[in-house]
Automatic annotation (TrEMBL):
Record keywords: Oxidoreductase
Similarity-based family: Belongs to the nitroreductase family.
Organism whose genome encodes this protein: Actinacidiphila rubida
Source superkingdom: Bacteria
Gene Ontology terms for molecular function: oxidoreductase activity
UniProt domain Nitroreductase: residue ranges: 12-192
UniProt name for this protein: Nitroreductase / dihydropteridine reductase
Amino acid sequence: MNLDRLMSKHLTRYFDGGRTIPEEKLQQLLKFLRSTPSSTNIQPNHFYVLATPEGKARLAANLGERFQDNGEKILNASHTVILTTRADLPESHLDGVFAKERADGRFADPAKQELWESMTRDFLSLRNYQYKDVYHWMEKQTYLALGLTMMAAAELGIEAMPLEGFDPASVDRAFKIRETGHTTTVLLALGYPDPAKVYSSPVSRFDSDQLFTFL
Ligand SMILES: Cc1cc2nc3c(=O)[nH]c(=O)nc-3n(C[C@H](O)[C@H](O)[C@H](O)COP(=O)(O)O)c2cc1C
């Protein structure tokens, strides 16, 4: 990965509508997305991968009135992923996580798995009843998956553009997402840049002395 290039480039606002991510690369990226870690291994996500013109058009048409300008990005992207997060955390989800960990042999010693499950329940009880931020906490996991996948895309030579400019209620309605117990958190457009419209101005970020404290 060329970190110097990554540090000096703008995110891609204009995709080349004529280029598609090769299937093998896409599958590698999705395999990576599937592997991204989450706190307590809670895995609160479902991902909608829009690969067809129809899928992308449905999303572009349902971003909400204020966010029409993001439509073109989605239509010209090779693929766009809708990253959704569970709207709540029912016991059945936790049961599913633990059952999969057991099936995958996450802990060789069953006693360790049991200890892990009880520690996870304690932690979730804190989030539920003390910090009262379960949904916010789950969405933070979604953003971690987003960021890591942006880096993986760079490694594969794919441009990845996160989009928060959309109305989640509208996107949820268009793809019947609430019916699954999830809600839309963020979008990720993937593809290749339109070479005629790549920004070449400097990237603007705060200076290091404002950002870092060394102790
Ligand atoms: C989580 C996230 C969501 C973003 N959503 C949008 C968006 O909806 N539309 C858009 O044009 N840019 C969006 N951006 C791009 C930012 O505005 C952009 O990265 C920032 O202004 C810095 O510009 P640069 O990437 O060109 O340096 C988003 C960036 C991030 C990290």
